[in-house]
Amino acid sequence: MELTSKCCIPLSDGNKIPLIGLGTYADPCKTTKGDSYEAVKVAIETGYRHIDGAMLYMNEDEVGQAIRSKIADGTVTRDDVFYCGKLWNTFHPPHLVRPALERTLETMKLDYVDLYIVEMPIAFKPGDAFYPHDENGKCIYHETDLCATWEAMEACKDAGLVKSLGVSNFNKRQLELILNKPGLKHKPVSNQVECHPYFTQPELLSFCQQKGIVMVGYSPLGTSRDPSWVNLKCPPLLEDEMLISIAQKHNKTPAQVALRFNIQRGIVVIPKSFTSARIKENFEIFDFCLSEAEMEKIQGLNKNLRFVQLRMWEDHPEYPFHDDY
Ligand code: NDP
Question: Which residue in the list 25, 37, 48, 57 is annotated as catalytic?
Answer without folding.
Answer: 57
